[in-house]
Amino acid sequence: MSPALPAVSPMPSFRRVGPRWMTVFTLAWLAIWTVQLTPVQLLLPLQLDTAEDDWISGVISSGFVLGIGGLAGIVAGPVAGALSDRARAGRRRRRPWAIGGVLVTAVFLIVTGFSEGPWAVGAAWVGVSIGVSVSSAAFTALIADQLPTTQRGAAAAAVGSSQAVGIVLGVGLVVLLGLGIRDGYLLLAAVIAAVGTAAALLLPDPPALVRTQPGESDRRLLASLRDRDFAWMLSGRLVTNIGNALGTALFLFFLLHGLHQETTVAQDNLLLLIVVYTLFVVLASVFTGVLSDRTGNRRTLTILATFVQAASGVVIALVPTFEATMVAAALMGLGYGAFSTVGLAFAADLLPDDKDHARDLGIVYVTAALGQLIGPVLGAGLVALVGGFWLVFVVAAVLSLVGGGLTALARQPARDPLPKP
């Protein structure tokens, strides 16, 4: 095992936040994940699905749309984070970007709902991805801005569990209310506009005390990526998220064309799979988040989580039945719930410079989001290559293991002392 690092950089002393802060923060992320993942899991596949005799074209179109959205998010998140880090003295750093991001997301969700065809839908989804990335960078920065290390695992658990609950909430509302594609997008736009804006206004955002000078920021532009441990952590996070996306993003297509279920049956079973996945994500997120706060050994927990995620791909590749898919969903939820939660707290611990929290956590976010959006593109190619889904799940398992190996190359930083009450 690699030796522990000394503390990465001198950090200001933070007081513990209360339940109100955590509740509002959780609601913000619940809204973000709901509006981002409901289209990924349900609305976009339905919007872009094609006839049974040409179903592979629908899979490829879906991968294309998600891929171009991911490319936009790669740029938008870190840029917005860097600009918010450089706010003028006396101005709010995170709130304006959070509100702007959620409103852009809401507008382009409406545009996506009224779009038709892969190119129009793809262009509208770029706007959604930019809005989500900008608001996510702002909210994520609050973890490092305002929380002591002993609460970062709990905050990361809120982010991770909200991701799973958001999928259930969004897909559940659309399916159970019998909403069409357009009405589903309108509902999501209302959710992010209302909840996201309210959360941004309620969460504290103290004005910046000193503005970072442009020359100083430019010299630090690639400092975080040159940090050995931060770079290895990012690599592992990216690859593991690609593995997760391969195992989950094509679920609806797998039910429709891999298990040959009718559309209505597939939608109902997709909701059931998501509920199982969510239950285990939440359990793993809460347990491992608290455990990592108590032990401080986030690196080991993150690596173990990738092995559990890999097991899910093995199960479904060997036994391609709906029952086995349920078991795989549970394993995927356990593995990814632990990985996303402890991995985010691990990333916050490894931040090289406290002056660039939003930019660097924006990079952390987009590596995860990029993995989630590369996955469907890669998955579409693998489906087209073999005319089925088995290779998708095999590659998902392999990438999960590779992600764990890359994470193992990052050293665990020394834990900060407990803050005084």
Your description of this structure?
Residues 233-421 form the Major facilitator superfamily (MFS) profile domain. This is MFS family permease. It is found in: Cell membrane. 78% of the residues lie in helices and 0% in strands. It has a single domain (19-210, 226-408), classed as Up-down Bundle (Growth Hormone, Chain: A). It has helices at 19-48, 55-85, 95-113, 118-146, 149-176, 181-202, 214-219, 223-226, 228-248, 251-258, 263-295, 298-318, 322-349, 357-386, 390-408. The two termini are 33 Å apart. With 421 residues, it is an all-alpha fold. Helix 1 crosses helix 5 (149-176) and helix 9 packs across helix 14 (357-386).
Topology:
Blueprint: H1 19-48, H2 55-85, H3 95-113, H4 118-146, H5 149-176, H6 181-202, H7 214-219, H8 223-226, H9 228-248, H10 251-258, H11 263-295, H12 298-318, H13 322-349, H14 357-386, H15 390-408
Helix pairs in contact: 1-2, 1-4, 1-5, 1-6, 2-4, 2-14, 3-4, 3-6, 4-14, 5-11, 5-13, 9-12, 9-13, 9-14, 9-15, 10-11, 11-13, 12-13, 12-15
- Classify the fold: give the CATH topology: Growth Hormone, Chain: A
Instruction: Report the uncertain regions.
Output: 1-11, 212-219
* pLDDT averaged over residues: 81
Largest sheet, if any? none
Principal-axis shape equals globular
CATH superfamily annotation: MFS general substrate transporter like domains
> Count the helices. How many?
15
Number of strands: 0
The CATH level-2 architecture is identified as: Up-down Bundle
**What structural class do the secondary elements suggest?**
mainly alpha
Protein name: MFS family permease
Pfam families: MFS_1
Organism: Microbacterium foliorum
Domain Major facilitator superfamily (MFS) profile: 233-421
